[in-house]
Design a protein that fits this description.
Number of domains: 2
Domain Methyltransferase: 180-293
Distance between the termini: 41 Å
CATH topology of the largest domain: Rossmann fold
Organism: Photobacterium ganghwense
InterPro entries: Methyltranfer_dom (IPR025714), SAM-binding_MTase (IPR053173), SAM-dependent_MTases_sf (IPR029063), WH-like_DNA-bd_sf (IPR036388), WH_DNA-bd_sf (IPR036390), WHD_Rv2258c (IPR048711)
Low-confidence stretches: none
Strand order of the largest sheet: 5-4-3-6-7-9-8
Protein name: Transcriptional regulator
Domain S-adenosylmethionine-dependent methyltransferase Rv2258c-like winged HTH: 30-104
CATH architecture of the largest domain: 3-Layer(aba) Sandwich
CATH class of the largest domain: Alpha Beta
Helix content: 40-55%
């Protein structure tokens, strides 16, 4: 067995490299917080619409914000290299190349949406530290904005590509939906995906279930506002879904990044297998990665995903007395759980626009 010699001679160059890496991490973490603020306040959107560099006062007025805060935000964004400044006039602009990645007009390419997770998770740091010492978990109610951010995240990775990339993953699915089938979304959150499908395919019947009352209330309000009559939403704890799922009911079942943070993920999958018709399809979107950390060393957002797992996905499961599987449960364990749940066929798909998820087409 290979071992690591922790008593090897101290390497000052290695220490210097790590020190530089850590300083960069501090700056990048701070940048994410300020990028989140720029996104939430609309500052990036305002700056992308300027026809010439502008002062902090002009930018603040156009955004309807306090100039002193905008000025300090511009300082952070300029030193981070996100915004540029003319030193002669102290006027600022957002390069078009940067705007293409941090504005709402960027659509699915808007990376500013993901920056919101840093501040959101920082809000529960004290709770997580307590869990490190005492065990247990942090419940959903400690994350007041999580469903809002997740919905925005899903809007980019799923909703914006629903018709063009995701429905076509299952051959013939669009025709089935148009003809009329029974559809279930497990862990539906705010229901944006199901509401969109219900709107596109009025002949089909849709049901979304989620543990969060806030999320379900939002989903119901949206379906009512759209006057959708072919969709329902239910508040439900799916820990015993393997026992109470009605057999052979649904033609198509979906989960969108929802299995790994369940209290009893295997029970959820067994329930899905039970409620799926013999010729039905289960579409599971879940985090792309390996179950073994050494295989994730080159993952482009590995640290980000492990952090979200530790500070949300894993801990909300543990708060329910659950398994605490975590977001980085990985493809190997996902396949193992699907097999144990009773599925016989699992085909993995990857989408070019989505660096964080695998898309599994699953059959009994």
């Amino acid at each position: 067995m290979a071992t690591t010699n922790t008593n090897a001679a101290f390497n000052p160059q290695k220490a210097e490299v790590f020190g530089d890496q850590f300083v960069n991490a501090l700056n990048n973490g701070a940048m994410c917080l300020m990028v989140s603020i720029g996104h939430r306040t609309g500052l990036f959107d305002v700056m992308s619409q300027l026809d010439q560099p502008a002062s902090s006062q002009a930018i603040a007025e156009r955004a309807g914000l306090n100039e002193r805060y905008v000025r300090e935000w511009l300082g952070a964004m300029t030193t981070a290299g996100v915004v540029e400044v003319d030193p002669a006039t102290n006027r600022f602009w957002l390069p078009a190349e940067h705007a293409s990645l941090v504005t709402r007009a960027a659509g699915a390419d808007n990376l500013a949406v993901f920056a919101q997770y840093i501040g959101l998770l920082g809000g529960v740091e004290d709770n997580i530290v307590d869990c490190f010492k005492q065990g247990g978990g942090v419940p959903y109610e400690k994350y007041p904005r999580f469903h809002e951010v997740m919905a925005e995240d899903s809007n980019q990775s799923v909703l914006s590509n629903l018709e063009t990339h995701i429905v076509p993953l299952v051959p013939g699915l669009a025709d089935q939906l148009a003809g009329g089938i029974q559809v279930l979304d497990v862990g539906c959150g705010r229901g944006r995906i199901m509401n969109r499908l219900a709107e596109l395919y009025p002949a089909s019947q849709f049901l979304g279930v989620d543990l969060s009352r806030e999320a379900i209330d939002y989903a119901r309000a949206e379906s009512k506002a759209r006057n959708l009559r072919n969709i329902e939403f239910e508040i439900s704890d799916l820990s015993n879904f393997d026992e109470r799922a009605q057999p052979d009911v649904f033609d198509f079942v979906t989960t969108f990044d929802a299995v790994h943070d369940q209290a009893k993920p295997l029970n959820v999958l067994r329930g899905i297998c039970r409620t799926l018709k013999p010729d039905g399809i289960y579409l599971m979107q879940d985090i792309k990665g390996s179950s073994h950390v050494h295989n994730n060393l080159d993952h482009p957002i590995g640290t980000f995903l492990y952090t979200i797992s530790c500070m949300h996905c894993m801990t909300v499961s543990l708060a329910q007395g659950g398994e605490g599987l975590g977001a980085m449960w990985g493809e190997e364990k996902a396949r193992e759980y699907l097999e144990r749940a009773g599925f016989s066929s699992v085909v993995k798909n990857e989408l070019a626009h989505d660096i964080q998820n695998n898309w599994y087409i699953v059959r009994k």
